[in-house]
Amino acid sequence: MSEAPRGILANLPLSTRQVLIIVVCVLLIAIDGFDVLSISFAAPGIAAQWGIERAALGLVLSLELMAMAVGSFVLGPIADRIGRRPIVLISLSLVAIGMLATTAVDSVLALGICRLLTGVGIGGMLPSVNVIAAEFTPQTHRSLTVTLVTTGYPLGAVVAGSIASALLAHYDWRSVFWLGGVLSLLCLPLVWFLIPESLEFLAKKQPVDALQKINRALARFGHPLLAELPRDTSDRAVSKRLLLEPRWIRTTVLLSVAYFGHVMTSYFILKWGAKVVADLGYPVSLAGSVLVWSNTGGLIGCLLFSVLTRKLRLHWMLISVMLGSCVAVAAFGQGLTTMTQLSISAALAGFFTQAGIVGLYALVVQAYPTEVRTGGFGLVMAIGRGGAALSPIVAGLMFQGGIGLSMVAVAMSTGSLIAIAALFLLARR
Asked: Does residue 230 belong to any structural domain of this protein?
């Protein structure tokens, strides 16, 4: 019987074509990173032009995060049935449409609808892109690959965010969405021509042309071809019920709680950072630079975390950076007034919060078998995204209720403490 593709990829070094697939995955996550934060860069300009109060603005900032949960929950499991590649193409199309449509809105309602559409696309794409990158990587390098791919998120926010800040100095807030929409549109041909379907998915599902597709990909990678498909002796009905088994329910719940808590802390900085700085009297273009600094710190944190996954245990690294996240986010609101102080504080917060997110992604990919990996990833993200969606709303309501920045920052930092508690329980397994 032929060796399964997973075994071939696990025992041979990465080919140039596999590296190219991973690079495209990094680019897709980078575009997503900017698209998610585009509303944060635009928020001060929108609030000034339309006169939106903080509580209402918090809801607008949360809309695409709610939709991301829906996208992950609905499209993640579908990717386990029809394939990762078609879901990425569909999701990317939704993102491009949503971003470009935002440039024509003239009301809060229309803006909200466009952000919902964008969020569904982003939520559907994130699990599939991470799983594609993992499944085209040798088993021993998967944690490193997933964490490296996830560094695309702060990388996109830094590069595109710097461009957005320059655009905002000369144009209105709609220019931010033009930038994100065009970049998303340009990624469609890259995915179409450069990313094949996951070999693990094809070997597991075995559609009619599975052998031809697998061998076509293996030939491009320079690996030996298969004479026949690997025998699949698993019970597919049982595979579909895996996520409902007690061991997977416990894992899913704990991972979801950890993700929920940590992203609630993380998105306080990402969604309210620019508005907080603008409220201190700084111009909109300069306020956006604080988000760039936050994501610069996040990029450094992601890269350092990726390197350390080769040396240290993932679980305890996660707990350590989440403790740092709690401290750094709380410190952001403690009497900082100069741009230097705010930028350094935001960079430190980004360093710890983004490192924690990439570590959680790697942990989730490790947790599930092939047949339910994208569905499991999507389910954890869907539940966890509730924390991201709740974060700007809760902070907005606290601000609206007259609570000062220092207390709001401390309250929002406790999400990472919740994540630490969940990871301790998970470690007991």
From this structure: no
